[in-house]
Amino acid sequence: MASSKTSIYAALIANLLIAVTKFIAGGISNSAAMIAEGVHSVVDTVNELFLLLGIHRSKKLADATHPFGYGKELYFWSFIVSIMIFGLGGGISIYQGIAHIIKPEELGDPTINYIVLSLSIVFEGASLIIAIKQFNQIRGTTPFWHAVIKSKDPSSFLVLFEDAAAVAGLFIVMICVYISHRFNKPYVDGVASLLVGLILVVVSAILARESRSLLMGEGVSTQTRDKICQMVEGDGHVVKVQHILSTYQSPTEVLLMLIVAFKADMDTEEINKAIDRIRDLVKAEFDLVRFVIIQPESLEHHVLWNDDKH
């Protein structure tokens, strides 16, 4: 989480430094693409603040109304960030682009645009490099896309996607600003704004998909489920693990429920001791499993329940 916050702070500083200059440059040069980039930077700045808020609120201690803690606050605010990128970043940029394609405006001196865009690429590029390094430390040797899907900490890849979209958008705007002035085609400036908006919409869709999955209660992987099942069934008093239910409460906390069939000749005290032993074993092996609920159930009940389903 600390490494994620490093990339968030870097992105926040970069966006804050260039947002105002983009708006000033866009106003002086009458460039829709620059205004769209200014909106993009403002949205990214607000997004970083939302992510920091989500991280802060997710660390609140459990209480009577939230007995498993507030970890999912991070997933909620990550989802809000993806909607912000879509609605404000992508939506306004696309609107600006279409408006300036339909009704192009006379372009002003592009010199300030080139200066601001060059500085923006430096700042955003530095932020992107930091985000890539932080994400690479987290993912290790895991392939990039698989690491994004597997990650349970959206703050680790949200900033990375934001910065990548920002750098791509800046290069598109710089190329289109040059073309629009070089060939006197004012509508190309609107095309740049439209392309930036489309990039943001695609990025927001990817981020919303991942954040939604976590917010809706994503569980542990199949491999982890199988390993837990083998471990529990290795206990001499367990006949069968009948169900494994899990959900991530936060990137570092998993709620696990095991429905277990114990040997029929065990009394209540023996079952309670077995439950305590299994709970300690699972929590010792899997650091992220903070809550383990074990429910005894007869094997006959499990068979009857499955027969009823079919």
Secondary-structure-derived class: mainly alpha
Side-by-side strand order of the widest sheet: 1-2-3
- What would CATH call the architecture of the largest domain? Up-down Bundle
What is the name of the CATH superfamily of the largest domain? Answer: Cation efflux protein transmembrane domain
- Can you tell me the number of structural domains? 2
**Strand portion:** 5-15%
Separation of termini? 45 Å
- Individual helix count: 10
Report low-confidence residues grouped into runs of 5 or more. none
Q: Tell me the series of helices and strands, N- to C-terminal.
A: HHHHHHHHEEHEH
CATH fold title of the largest domain: Alpha-lytic protease prodomain-like
Helix content: over 70%
Biggest sheet architecture? 3 strands, mixed
**How confident is the prediction overall: mean pLDDT?**
83
Q: Radius of gyration, rounded?
A: 26 Å
CATH class of the largest domain: Mainly Alpha
Anisotropy-based shape: elongated
Total number of β-strand segments? 3
Pfam families: Cation_efflux
Membrane topology: Multi-pass membrane protein
GO molecular function: monoatomic cation transmembrane transporter activity
Protein name: Cation diffusion facilitator family transporter
